[in-house]
Amino acid sequence: GQSLEQPSEVTAVEGAIVQINCTYQTSGFYGLSWYQQHDGGAPTFLSYNGLDGLEETGRFSSFLSRSDSYGYLLLQELQMKDSASYFCAVRDRAAGNKLTFGGGTRVLVKP
Amino acid sequence: NAGVTQTPKFRVLKTGQSMTLLCAQDMNHEYMYWYRQDPGMGLRLIHYSVGEGTTAKGEVPDGYNVSRLKKQNFLLGLESAAPSQTSVYFCASTPGWEGIGRGGRKSYNEQFFGPGTRLTVL
User: Fold this and answer.
1) Helix, strand or coil for residue A8?
2) How does B42-54 read in b/e, with b if 16+ C-beta sit within 10 Å?
3) Residue B68's closest CA among B54, B58, B57, B56?
4) H/E stretch holding A65
5) pLDDT (0 to 100) of residue B101
6) For the segment A73-103, what is each residue's pLDDT rounded down to a tens digit?
């Protein structure tokens, strides 16, 4: 099976940088994804890491270390609209591109 | 394109009643998924399908059935609803594979989610 751990909540001010860590235990790891979900909304895809290293997409970056079973999502130049929940999700090797989600990190951005 | 749509958006059931949730996608995606999300928690996979006519169990399949008779639709059924099935249900889809140069292909990483169905079982 799969299990993921991420902090439950992070608070920061506008313009700051936030790092959300995700550690995982898995029986068949293929890659790590990150999704954003605003209150009452649907999850939306942010990034995917299949290989070790950093992936950058605008103000957001994601990192993976397969040897450490660890990844993080970096949110830079925080804006009020970044207040949301962020989920890491492990994609396993089995057929179907299935995802197992972590419990989510609620990010609160204050002015 | 409408993307992924879900019907209904809200529903209240009594214990023991049955219902079907409909998910439709107009992106010609091969893979489709049903998740449930309980308050303050992550999504858990109920069932999934890798193509028309196929279904498979996810992490929490008990109490649910699914069907994928048409590629664009994925139905989730509750035969006898229980209060423990009170949750928000999300459907998602993905192409499964994308073409790359010289006729190759690689797996597609992004899942596209519908807006969700909020179900309460009394």
Assistant:
1) coil
2) bbbbbbbbbeeee
3) B54
4) strand A60-65
5) 64
6) 999 999 999 999 999 999 987 778 899 999 9
Nearest to A96 by CA among B105, B50, B34, B73: B50
CA gap B112, B90 in Å, rounded: 10
Contact status of A75 with chain B (Cβ, < 8 Å) = no
B32 contacts B23 by C-beta, under 8 angstroms: yes
Between CA A101 and CA B38 the distance in angstroms is: 12
**What's the CA gap between B8 and B78, in Å, rounded?**
14
pLDDT digits (tens, 9 = 90+) for B10-52: 999 999 999 999 999 999 999 999 999 998 889 999 999 999 9
**DSSP 8-state symbol, A41:** S
CB–CB of B13/B100 below 8 Å?
Answer: no
Q: Which of A4, A91, A96 sits opposite B48 (nearest CB)?
A: A96
Low-confidence ranges of chain A (pLDDT < 50): none
* Cβ separation A96–B108 shorter than 8 A: no
- Taking an 8 Å cut-off on Cβ atoms, the answer to whether B43 and A91 are in contact is no
Q: Token digits for A52?
A: 């070790």
- Report the run of H or E that residue B118 belongs to, with start and end: strand B117-121
